[in-house]
Write a structure and sequence with these properties.
single chain, 191 residues, alpha+beta, NADH Oxidase, four-stranded antiparallel β-sheet, 5 helices, 38% helix, 15% strand, globular
Length: 191
């Protein structure tokens, strides 16, 4: 692999939001590649804590209805936003697929929980970089609503939801540039 290509993919990886997706579906074969690449993330003691639930087709509508209804149920009248309610549903409708990101805690608790969350995050980064390399949009969302996902899915003991990876094709002519502060501002060298 070309090292410069890897650097380019890492630096050009961006959040592409569901509102930016077009109607061209993401293939099941590509989703399988995403999940296989996720599976090669590192994990301490090989706990491999990442778990994924792929939501497509009419299941996206059911998830959107569940999330928007849950938002209505947990939000006070004063805080309720019709815009946010609609946005929750639209995210689900706009995505070609939604990968529900879950973490399965090692039942023996051989490693700290933060390490398993970090390992799951690295699995998501593998998927995100795969999307970037293939010009497929994706966005990791972790709203408070993830705390209610056990009312929608059956989870194994110790499993919990860490968010949603929305994926979809998008029109490449959109400007998706981003900026970072210089790395020198974030480093202390100790010799």
């Amino acid at each position: 692999m070309n090292k410069e290509y890897l650097n380019k993919i890492i630096r050009e990886r961006r959040a592409i939001f569901p509102s930016q997706y077009n109607d061209k579906p993401v293939s099941k074969e590509f989703i399988k590649i995403l999940l296989e690449n996720a599976n090669w993330a590192p994990s301490h003691r090989l706990t491999e804590p990442w778990r994924f639930k792929v939501v497509q087709g009419t299941a996206k509508d059911r998830l959107g209805d569940f999330l928007s209804d849950t938002y209505t149920d947990i939000t006070s009248n004063e805080s309720f936003s019709p815009f946010k309610h609609k946005k929750i549903k639209n995210k689900c409708k706009s995505a070609s697929a939604i990968i529900v990101i879950c973490m399965q805690r090692d039942i023996k608790e051989r490693v700290p929980e933060w390490e398993e969350i970090a390992a799951t995050s690295m699995a998501v980064q593998n998927m995100w970089l795969t999307c970037a390399a293939n010009e497929v949009g994706c966005y990791w969302s972790s709203p408070a609503l993830i705390n209610y996902m056990s009312d929608f899915f059956e989870f194994e003991e110790g499993e919990r939801c860490l968010g949603f990876l929305y994926i979809g094709n998008y029109d490449k002519e959109e400007d998706v540039t981003s900026k970072r502060k210089p790395i020198e501002e974030k480093i202390e060298w100790h010799d």
